[in-house]
Amino acid sequence: MKKRNIRKLKEKGWSEEDIRKTEEIIERRRREDKSRTFISMNRVLYWSAIVVIVLGNFIISIFLIPFLLVLKKLSLDIIIVTIAFAFGLLFNLLITDIEHVEKKHHLFALIMIPLIALINFVIMVNVANSLGKAMNLSFVRENPYFISLLYIVAFILPYLYTLIIKKEYKEWK
Questions:
Q1: How far is CA 35 from CA 29, 39, 61, 100, 161, in A?
Q2: Is residue 37 part of a domain?
Q3: Is residue 173 part of a domain?
Q4: Does 14 share its domain with 80?
Q5: Would the pTM of this model clear 0.85, i.e. be above it?
Q6: Are residues 83 and 141 in the same domain?
Q7: How many angstroms separate the CA atoms of 19 and 39, rounded?
Q8: 3-class DSSP state for residue 113?
C-alpha cells in the first residue's frame, strides 16, 4: 500500500494491525486479479494504438492534398479542423481507455503524436504546393506551418480536455 494511503489510514485512527490486514487482503486480491496478467497486453494495445494513430495521420495528410489544391482557405480550414478534431476524439478514446498506461506513455503520446502529425502536414502542404506549381494553379500557396498547427491544435484538444479540464488523469493513474 502506498505510504500516503497508510498515513491517511493512521490519521483516521486505524491500528497498525488493521492496516497490515488490509495490506494482506489487497495483496492477495492483486495476486488473484486476472486482469493484472493483461498489463503486457495493454502495452501491446497502447503501441498498436500509437501506430494506428500515426498511420491514420499519414493517410489523412495524403487524403487532404486534393483539397489543398482546389478549396479556398476558409473551407479548407474548416475541413482540416473537423477531421483533426474527429481523429483527436478517436485518439483520446484509444489512449485513455487502455488500463495500466503509465505517465511516461501519456507524455510520449502527448508530445510525439503531434510532432509526427506536424512533420506529416508540413510535407503534405509542401507536396500540394509543388503540385499546384506544376499544374499552374496560382492560388495554391498554403503556409505549411499554419495548416499543420491548425491540425495539431484541433487534434490534441480532446486529449488535453481529458487530461486538464476533466482532471481524469490528475495523478496519471
A1: 11, 7, 38, 10, 28
A2: no
A3: no
A4: no
A5: no
A6: yes
A7: 27
A8: helix
Residue with cell 503501441: 47
Return d(Cα 18, Cα 16) in angstroms, integer: 6
> Residue 98 sits in which domain range?
42-165
Same domain, 73 and 146: yes
- Per-residue pLDDT for the chain (173 aa), expressed as one digit of tens each? 677 778 888 888 888 888 888 888 887 776 665 555 566 677 778 788 888 888 888 888 888 888 877 788 888 889 989 998 998 898 888 777 776 667 777 778 778 878 887 888 788 878 877 887 888 766 556 677 788 888 889 988 988 888 777 665 555 54
Domain total of the chain: 2
The residue assigned the cell 482540416 is 80
What are the counts of helices (DSSP H) followed by strands (DSSP E) for the chain?
Answer: 7, 0
What is the C-alpha to C-alpha distance for residues 98 and 115, in angstroms, rounded to an integer?
A: 22
Tell whether 85 and 131 lie within a shared domain: yes
133 found inside a domain: yes
